[in-house]
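Design a sequence for this backbone.
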């Protein structure tokens, strides 16, 4: 077979009837790589046709083939998590994508320090600083990407980190746009307390819809937002990414001894406009309902802006919470949350509406008992689990939350922690970062090839 193919190619060359590129394809199909290389050298003496090498495109987007790595750039405001769940998702997504050997990950952001760079380097994520644009907000510096920056995929996130992509596409038109959605502005507006929340929420919704429609792929954080997105861009364009267990919290060893005062932890942003949205008033009233119980209950809130702890305290006290049942602490860096989880006996997330609810997942990752609102992405995800149904509450009634908090307290500390770890294991098996990101990478390859 080898000899026959070689003779056939010799005849075709001598007659100059086929171009070198066609000869390459024929030989590859016959698995005769050595023969092809030899023949191509011969052809160079009898033909002016040559096979062009794969090169970088003029606009900085790498032409993709199976031998090159997929180059993915995420837009972000920071490497850390000081700005909330959006930053957390971006960082974790970058880390998980970088685990794939076929992918090179870059995070494009307004600023970072040496500590950020060292940590990102550990995870094979390259940080790229945007050029300062005087007169513009730092987040809008991201709209201008260096012309020599190579990328196949650019990932935007919500309006804050998605509006820049249209400008990026003007200078990098071959790059594909993946848009992450982690909130539903219209739903959240129903519980906001600033001026004209519905009108502002409606405008944000319209912008979010336009961004998703312009994108090549929409990635929804959790099942609830996937359903929301399907209403305006079709389910076939939506990929569901349900966040997995955060490994950085999984090694916390919770104290097994019972403590006299049962600490109920709530944490997150303490903006006055989000107080009702996040259900902080529900949490405060629920703990107040337990003031006459034999066991002592205390609500611990973590998330007050530094120097504003007293203002946040007053917001909680308006709900008739007893001062002796309340502790307000400033917002913590992510690495400091481990100590808060160690101090807590239970974490609750009584949000009236939540796109996903990373605070509950972070607590679950730490092996803590949790109670979460049904109107959240994590609530829907947990209801798919055998053990998860027991920790999801479909109620805004503080008395209902008080009853469930007491039920958790009535179990022994050992049993509470065992059940929490079992739930974490069940959640981790169903919702894995690695498996979901593998599907995401496969989708990236498909869209780039198309």
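Sequence:
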């Amino acid at each position: 077979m080898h000899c026959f193919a070689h003779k056939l190619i010799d005849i075709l060359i001598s007659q100059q009837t086929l171009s070198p590129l066609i000869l390459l394809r024929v030989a590859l199909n016959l698995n005769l790589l050595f023969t092809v290389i030899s023949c191509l050298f011969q052809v160079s003496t009898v033909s002016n046709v040559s096979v062009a090498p794969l090169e970088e495109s003029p606009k900085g987007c790498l032409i993709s083939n199976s031998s090159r790595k997929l180059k993915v750039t995420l837009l972000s405001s920071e490497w850390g998590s000081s700005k909330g769940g959006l930053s957390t998702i971006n960082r974790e997504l970058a880390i998980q994508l970088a685990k794939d050997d076929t992918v090179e990950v870059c995070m494009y952001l307004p600023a970072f320090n040496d500590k950020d760079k060292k940590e990102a380097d550990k995870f094979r994520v390259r940080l790229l600083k945007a050029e300062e644009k005087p007169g513009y907000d730092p987040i809008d510096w991201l709209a201008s990407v260096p012309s020599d920056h190579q990328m196949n995929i650019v990932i935007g996130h919500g309006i804050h980190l998605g509006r820049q992509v249209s400008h990026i596409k003007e200078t990098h038109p071959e790059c594909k746009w993946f848009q992450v959605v982690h909130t539903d502005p219209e739903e959240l507006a129903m519980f906001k307390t600033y001026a004209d929340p519905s009108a502002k929420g409606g405008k944000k919704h319209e912008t979010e819809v336009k961004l998703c429609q312009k994108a090549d792929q929409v990635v929804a954080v959790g099942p609830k937002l996937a359903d929301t997105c399907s209403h305006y861009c079709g389910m076939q364009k939506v990929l569901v990414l349900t966040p997995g267990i955060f490994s950085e919290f999984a090694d916390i060893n919770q104290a097994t001894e019972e403590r006299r005062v049962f600490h109920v932890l709530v944490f997150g942003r303490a903006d006055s406009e989000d107080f009702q949205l996040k259900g902080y008033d529900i949490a405060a009233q629920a703990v107040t309902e337990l003031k006459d119980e034999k066991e002592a209950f205390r609500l611990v809130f973590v998330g007050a802006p530094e120097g504003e702890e007293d203002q946040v305290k007053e917001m909680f006290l308006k709900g008739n919470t007893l001062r002796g049942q309340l502790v307000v602490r400033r917002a913590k860096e992510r690495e400091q949350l481990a100590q808060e989880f160690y101090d807590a006996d239970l974490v609750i997330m009584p949000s009236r509406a939540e796109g996903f609810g990373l605070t509950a997942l972070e607590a679950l990752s730490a092996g803590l008992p949790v109670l979460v609102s049904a109107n959240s992405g994590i609530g829907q995800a947990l209801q798919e689990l055998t053990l998860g149904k027991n920790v999801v509450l479909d109620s805004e009634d503080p008395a209902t939350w008080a009853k469930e908090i007491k039920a958790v307290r009535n179990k022994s500390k050992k049993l509470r922690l065992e059940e929490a770890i079992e739930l974490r294991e069940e959640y981790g098996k169903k919702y894995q970062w690695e498996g979901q990101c593998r599907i995401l990478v496969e989708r990236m390859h498909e869209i780039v090839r198309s």
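Confidence is low (pLDDT under 50) at residues 1-9, 11-59, 62-67.
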